[in-house]
Amino acid sequence: MRILAVSGSLRARSANTAALVAASRLAPDGVVVEVYDGLASLPHFNPDLDGEGMEPPEPVAALRRSIETVDGVLFSTPEYAHGLPGALKNALDWLVSTPAFYGKPVALIDTSAAYSVHAVASLLEVLSTMGTRLVREACVDLPLRGRPLDADGILAAPDLVQRVRTGLDALARAIQSR
Fold first, then answer.
1. ∠ CA(162), CA(84), CA(163), 5° rounding?
2. Taking Cα atoms as reference points, which of 7, 44, 11, 39 lies closest to residue 24?
3. What is the pTM of this model?
4. What spatial distance separates the first Cα and last Cα of the chain, rounded to whole Å?
5. If we measure between CA atoms, which residue out of 126, 116, 132, 119 comes closest to residue 45?
6. Where are the alpha helices (H) located in 50-109, listed in sequence order?
7. In this structure, are residues 90 and 63 in contact, taking their beta carbons and an 8 Å threshold?
8. pLDDT tens across 39-54, in order?
9. How far apart are CA 111 and CA 108, in angstroms?
């Protein structure tokens, strides 16, 4: 089973990316969590580059292939100005026209639950519009705000490890029951 982990942050030392890297190291047996690293390479969404019968730009085609070949998707995103970061919204816009996302189980790791309510709400709205299947029991609040932890730091904190494992187990179960 394969899960694609998508961070909405482009920051080199992002808590969201660190949480997803930690998740990739905590994947249960039989589950591979692949951290997507192509967000910054995606061109700005332009429907003129994505017409019927056209080949999209290669970074977009690669993202779509990734979505098509995985069994589920795990997101973690910061909030900027009460919304999704532009880079993540851009990636989602490129995925709207592909049916590969429809019905795909998705979950979220929220690293700043008290401060990212608008981004999470916006992400859930977009994912719902795209027809994904939100696995609520796999969504995890990971309290990292004010705790400058990288993936190794997260893995060294038993309470955080347990939260991530619980979410991954729930996502894996939802994928298996699909």
1. 5
2. 7
3. 0.96
4. 12
5. 126
6. 58-69, 86-95
7. no
8. 999 999 999 998 888 8
9. 9
93-112 pLDDT, tens digit each: 999 988 988 999 999 999 98
Close Cβ partners of 83 (under 8 Å, ≥ 6 residues apart): 89, 118, 119, 122
Q: What percent of the chain has pLDDT over 90?
A: 87
Pair of tokens at residue 22: 């930690």
Q: How many CB atoms are located within 10 Å of the residue 2 CB? A: 14
Contact 67, 106 (CB under 8 A): no
Above 80 in pLDDT, residue 91? yes
- Structure tokens, 176: 């298996």
Q: Which two tokens stand for residue 167?
A: 């979410």
How far is it, in rounded angstroms, from Cα 15 to Cα 144? 7
Coarse DSSP helix, strand, coil percentages of the chain, rounded to the nearest 5 percent: 45, 15, 40
> Comparing C-alpha atoms, which of 136, 132, 73 is closest to residue 101?
132
Token readout for 141 is 């609040």
DSSP of 129-153, one letter per residue?
HTT-EE-GGG-EE---TT----HHH
- Joined tokens for residue 24: 């990739």
Q: Of 92, 108, 103, which Cα lies nearest the Cα of 132? A: 103
Domains of the chain: 2-176 (3.40.50.360)
Q: Is it the case that residue 75 has pLDDT exceeding 90?
A: yes
